[in-house]
Design goal:
heterodimer, A: mainly alpha, globular, B: alpha/beta, four-stranded antiparallel sheet, 59% helix, elongated
C-alpha cells in the first residue's frame, strides 16, 4: 500500500515540475526550469522509493501488469532525462519530457486498481527481463523523440531568424542532437535484448520463438526502423534535422501501431 | 541620512573631461586616505572607470561636505572649475542610494546591462575597506547595492541579450554548437568587423582560426595576431570542410561562396553543422546556401534585427529593474531609520543589565550559600525576565523608527528610564 501512496505523491510532484517547466517556456526564463529540474529529481526519488516499497514491503514482483509497466516507463524517462542533465545543461528540454511523463503516470494511476493480475504464466525472471529491457529501450526512444521535437523547433527558429528570446531559451542544437543520439545508442541494444528475452520465453511457453502476432510484427518493424536509423547515424553520418525527424517518425509509428494493435487486433501478447 | 554622492559620467561629461579625471587604482588608493582625513567626511568610497567618476561618502555636515568633495574632485583633474561644475551631479541621501543602486545594476551604463560595472564597484569597495574608509553605513549600502545588482540580473532580462552584431553572432553560434571550445573558424576577408568577431569567438574558446584575404600579407598579419593560419584567398574552399563557422566580410562585388561549394564541403565534413555569417555588403555568400540542411546562414541585416530586438527587450526589462530598485531603496531606508533608535536600545539594555548585576551583587551574601549551578540558574532567570520585559518596547521602537520621521517613543523611553 505504501508503494501506491508514494506513487501518487510522485505523480503530484511530476505534475508540479511540468507546470513549472511550462512557466519557464511562458516567461522565457531559464530560472524556473532549474527549479523544475530539482522538482523532477525529487519526484524521481519518491518514484524510486515507491518501486522499492512495492518490491520489499508488498512483496510483489514489480513491473508486471499495465500499471507497473507504465509507471516504470515514466521512471526510465525521468531518470534518463535527469542523467543527461549531468553532461549537458538542457534544462528546458524538461518542458517536453515532463508532460509525457505526467500523461503516462496519469494513465498508470487509472490502471492502478484493476489491470491484468499477474497470471501464473507470467512469473519468472525471463519475463521480468523481457519487460524491463523492452520498456527501458522504448522509454529512451521517447526521450529521444522529445529531444528530436525540440531540435526541429530550435532548428526552424534559428532558420527563420525570429523569436530571439525563444532561441536563447532553448538548448543548443548540438546538445539536443547528442541527447537524441545517446538515447538511440543505448535504447537500441536494450530493446534488442528485451525482444530476445521475450522470444526465448515464447519458445518455452508456446514452443516457438515467433507467433506472427500483431504486436510481435509491429515491434519487429519498429526495431528494424531503429536499426536503420542507428546505422545511418553511425555509418552514413546522419545528424541534426534528418536524424531528429526520423527518430520522431519512427517513435510515432511505433506508438500508433501499438495502440491500434491493442484496440483492433487479436493478440496473444495480451498482457498489457 | 547625511549621505552625499558626487560624480560625473558619460552622460554629463565629455570624454576630454572624463579622461583627465579618470583615476587609476593607484590614484584611488592615494585619494581615499586624503578624503577620510577631512573632518566633514566620515566614510568614503571612490569609483573610477572610463565612463564615470563617483565619490560616495557618509558626511557630518551636508553642505560643507559637498563643497569639500567638489574641491577634492577639481583637484584631481586640474581643469577649469566652471566647466567641471556643469558636468558634476550631486545626490543626497535616498537619491544617492538610488543612484548607486542604478549604477551597480548597470542601468546607468553606456551599454545598459553590461556586466563589468558590478566588478568595478566591488573593487572600489574592496579598496575602501582596505584603507578603512568605510563604516556601518557604507558597508551596509555597498552590500545592499551588490544584492540589488544580483536581483536585477536574475529577475530581469536586462543583461541577457547581445546588443552588438559580433556578439549576437557569437550567441547564435553557441545555440548551434553548444560549447564553442575546439570549434574552428574561417575568416574570409580580414577587416575590422571580422577581427572583432574573431576576438569574441576566441574568448569563447574557439580552437583554430583560418584567415583568407585577398592581400595575403594582411592575412598573415592577422593570423599572427590570433595565432591562426593564413590561407591563400583562392584556396579557401579547401579548408571549408574543416571549419564550423565562416565569417565572410570581403569587398567582393558578387557572391564568393555559393551553394555548391557549401554542399560539397558539407559532404566532406565529419561534423555536419555549419554556421555561415555574412557581414559583407554587398553580400559574399549566396543566400541559397542557407537552404541546405544543417547549414545556418545569417547576413548583416539578420544580425542587426537580432540586436535591435534585444535592445528593445533590454529597454522594457529596464522598467522592471527600476521597480526593483525603488523597492530596495525603500528597504534600505527602513534599515537606515532603525539606526536612529540603536543608541537608545543599547542604552536601555545596558541599564537593565546594570541593574541585574547590581542586585546580584547586593544579594551576594545569601547567594553565597548556593552552588554554582543554582547561581547560574538564578542569573539566567533574571536575564530572561529582563529580555521578556524589554521585548515589546524594543520592537515598538524599531517599528516606530521605520515608519515615522519623529520619534516620540525614543524621547519617552529616554525620559522614563533616565537614559
Amino acid at each position: 500500500m505504501m508503494g501506491i501512496v508514494l506513487f501518487k505523491v510522485a505523480l503530484v510532484v511530476y505534475l508540479a515540475s511540468a507546470v513549472v517547466y511550462g512557466g519557464s517556456l511562458w516567461g522565457r526564463r531559464v530560472m524556473p526550469a532549474r527549479f523544475a529540474t530539482g522538482l523532477m529529481f525529487a519526484a524521481l526519488v519518491i518514484h524510486t522509493s515507491s518501486f522499492i516499497s512495492r518490491w520489499l514491503v508488498d512483496e510483489m514482483t514489480p513491473i508486471i501488469g499495465l500499471y507497473d509497466v507504465l509507471s516504470f516507463f515514466a521512471w526510465v524517462m525521468a531518470a534518463a532525462y535527469l542523467a543527461m542533465q549531468l553532461r549537458t545543461k538542457t534544462r528546458v528540454l524538461g518542458a517536453f519530457v515532463s508532460p509525457v511523463i505526467c500523461v503516462i503516470m496519469v494513465i498508470a494511476s487509472v490502471e492502478l486498481g484493476g489491470g491484468v493480475g499477474a497470471s501464473a504464466m507470467l512469473k519468472g525472471s525471463l519475463v521480468t527481463a523481457h519487460v524491463m529491457l523492452s520498456i527501458t529501450g522504448e522509454a529512451l526512444f521517447a526521450v529521444a523523440s522529445c529531444a528530436g521535437i525540440m531540435y526541429l523547433l530550435q532548428d526552424s527558429l534559428i532558420r527563420r531568424k525570429k523569436e530571439g528570446s525563444l532561441i536563447r531559451l532553448f538548448p543548443s542544437l548540438r546538445d539536443l542532437d547528442r541527447i537524441n543520439y545517446l538515447c538511440l545508442f543505448w535504447g537500441f541494444p536494450l530493446l534488442t535484448l528485451g525482444i530476445l528475452a521475450g522470444s526465448f520465453w515464447a519458445r518455452i511457453v508456446w514452443g516457438s520463438h515467433w507467433q506472427w502476432d500483431s504486436k510481435q510484427v509491429w515491434t519487429l518493424l519498429a526495431w528494424g526502423l531503429y536499426a536503420f536509423l542507428l546505422h545511418q547515424r553511425l555509418v552514413i553520418g546522419w545528424q541534426g534535422r534528418k536524424a531528429a525527424r526520423w527518430s520522431l517518425m519512427v517513435f510515432t509509428a511505433l506508438a500508433v501501431l501499438l495502440i491500434v494493435g491493442k484496440l483492433f487486433f487479436q493478440t496473444v501478447h495480451n498482457f498489457m | 541620512m547625511q549621505l552625499v554622492l558626487i560624480g560625473m559620467n558619460h552622460k554629463t561629461a565629455p570624454l576630454e573631461i572624463r579622461e583627465r579625471l579618470q583615476l587609476s587604482s593607484g590614484d584611488v588608493e592615494r585619494a581615499l586616505p586624503e578624503l577620510i582625513r577631512m573632518t566633514e567626511i566620515r566614510e568614503a568610497i571612490c569609483l573610477s572607470t572610463c565612463n564615470r567618476v563617483e565619490v560616495i561618502s557618509h558626511v557630518t555636515d551636508g553642505e560643507q561636505a559637498v563643497a569639500v568633495l567638489k574641491s577634492f574632485i577639481y583637484g584631481q583633474g586640474n581643469l577649469d572649475i566652471a566647466e567641471m561644475e556643469r558636468c558634476l551631479y550631486v545626490y543626497r541621501d535616498l537619491e544617492a542610494v538610488r543612484h548607486l543602486f542604478r549604477v551597480t545594476s548597470s542601468l546607468d551604463s553606456m551599454v545598459m546591462g553590461e556586466p563589468q560595472i558590478l566588478g568595478q564597484m566591488k573593487e572600489a569597495y574592496r579598496m575602501a575597506v582596505d584603507h578603512r574608509t568605510t563604516g556601518v553605513l557604507l558597508n551596509r549600502l555597498s552590500h545592499h547595492a551588490f544584492l540589488v545588482a544580483k536581483r536585477v540580473r536574475t529577475e530581469t532580462g536586462i543583461a541577457g541579450n547581445a546588443v552588438s552584431v559580433s556578439y549576437a553572432a557569437v550567441e547564435l553560434a553557441k545555440k548551434i554548437f553548444g560549447n564553442l571550445k575546439g570549434k574552428s573558424v574561417l575568416l574570409i576577408g580580414a577587416g575590422e568587423m571580422s577581427e572583432l568577431a574573431a576576438r569574441h569567438l576566441l574568448r569563447q574558446g574557439v580552437g583554430r582560426i583560418h584567415i583568407a584575404n585577398r592581400t595575403y600579407a594582411r592575412a598573415e598579419e592577422m593570423a599572427a595576431l590570433f595565432q591562426g593560419t593564413p590561407v591563400a584567398f583562392d584556396r579557401f574552399p579547401e579548408v571549408l570542410p574543416e571549419v564550423d563557422i565562416v565569417i565572410a566580410s570581403t569587398g567582393a562585388p558578387g557572391y564568393i561562396l555559393n551553394k555548391e561549394m557549401v554542399a560539397m564541403a558539407l559532404r566532406r565534413k565529419r561534423d555536419r553543422l555549419l554556421f555561415l555569417i555574412d557581414i559583407a555588403v554587398p553580400r559574399d555568400i549566396d543566400p541559397a546556401a542557407g537552404e541546405i540542411e544543417n547549414v545556418y546562414l545569417y547576413n548583416i541585416d539578420h544580425l542587426q534585427d537580432v540586436v535591435d530586438a534585444n535592445r528593445e527587450v533590454r529597454k522594457s526589462e529596464a522598467m522592471k529593474a527600476e521597480e526593483i530598485i525603488a523597492e530596495e531603496v525603500t528597504a534600505f531606508e527602513k534599515w537606515f531609520n532603525t539606526l536612529a533608535v540603536v543608541p537608545t536600545i543599547v542604552a536601555l539594555r545596558g541599564k537593565m543589565e546594570g541593574i541585574v548585576r547590581g542586585e546580584m551583587e547586593r544579594s551576594a551574601r545569601w547567594l553565597g550559600g548556593l552552588d554554582a549551578e543554582e547561581r547560574s540558574r538564578i542569573e539566567w532567570l533574571a536575564a530572561s525576565i529582563v529580555n521578556k520585559i524589554l521585548h515589546d518596547p524594543i520592537t515598538g521602537l524599531k517599528e516606530e523608527s521605520s515608519e515615522k520621521d519623529e520619534l516620540p517613543y525614543v524621547a519617552a523611553v529616554r525620559r522614563l528610564f533616565k537614559l
